[in-house]
Design brief:
heterodimer, A: elongated, B: Four Helix Bundle (Hemerythrin (Met), subunit A), 8 helices
């Protein structure tokens, strides 16, 4: 049996890769995909804890996280399309309407 | 065998995640993310969470990523930006933040020991079955479950409203 700390380590590494992507990439779609990466990294550690504690509640939480991630991707991509239609760009560094 | 499978899945997951972040082409990024989601469901299988493994493939690799690829196709974006042309202040700052977050996560993860109960293999397998999750989901968590249905409906309606052509603007132009 693999120790819980390995799952937590992999989960932390994947989360950090997601953070790096969100901070450095400029394409709005790729930023969204990095957010999905972070969500699934957190899901891994939730499932790991749930399995090692013998408690089903962690998995229920992962189920709801999946539902919310689906809703978030749906609305987020619609916003990207709306912005693209108005500005003809999906580059988030060029969308600076509210910048002072 | 189990260790080998874990190492294989972990390498695959980290490799595809890095490839996704570093790949120039948006479509390649999306395809790497699909492979990453498949390897995450491999993690769930090693943790005896069969139900979530199936749901992960269905919802993420199936539904969400098809939506992503569809939007990439609609927006018609290909090679867009150079990832790292010159190292500027912003990227160094991002790297520093990333390392700090990673250090914090590892610090917390190394601190858990001593609270885990002693479970037999049989008990661990019993946690992640469809039966156990469904039993809990339709008794204790029935209200959140129904709220999720409303949330998904609201999200779909909201997405349609956001992505449709702005009817009022067109009327004024005509």
């Amino acid at each position: 049996m693999i120790g819980l700390e390995w799952y937590l380590g992999v989960s932390a590494l994947l989360f950090v890769i997601g953070v790096l992507g969100v901070l450095t990439r400029k394409n709005a779609i790729v930023v969204f995909m990095c957010v999905e990466l972070m969500l699934s990294a957190v899901n891994i550690s939730l499932v790991a804890f749930s399995s090692y504690m013998g408690d089903v509640h962690g998995m229920i939480l992962v189920f709801f996280v999946l539902c919310v991630a689906a809703a978030e991707a749906c609305v987020g991509l619609a916003i990207v399309i709306a912005i693209y239609r108005n500005n003809i760009t999906a580059d988030i560094s060029k969308i600076n309407l509210l910048r002072w | 065998m189990e260790t080998f499978f874990f190492v294989f899945v972990a390498t695959f997951a980290i490799g595809t995640a890095l490839a996704m972040v570093l790949s120039k082409n948006t479509v390649n990024s999306a395809l790497f993310l699909i492979m990453h989601m498949l390897s995450v469901s491999g993690f769930y299988l090693t943790l005896n969470a069969q139900f979530l493994a199936v749901i992960q493939i269905l919802v993420y690799a199936g539904a969400i990523m098809v939506l992503f690829l569809f939007v990439i196709m609609v927006l018609n974006m290909d090679e867009d930006e150079q990832i790292v042309t010159r190292v500027n202040f912003k990227q160094i700052f991002a790297l520093v933040i990333t390392l700090v977050v990673f250090a914090q996560l590892l610090y917390i993860a190394g601190d858990y020991s001593g609270i885990l109960p002693d479970l037999s293999q049989q008990e661990m397998i019993a946690v992640g079955t469809v039966e156990a999750i469904g039993d809990e989901l339709f008794t204790t968590f029935l209200l959140p479950f129904e709220a999720t249905a409303i949330l998904l409906t609201a999200a779909v309606v909201g997405a349609m409203l956001l992505a449709q052509k702005n009817v009022n603007v067109e009327d004024e132009e005509e």
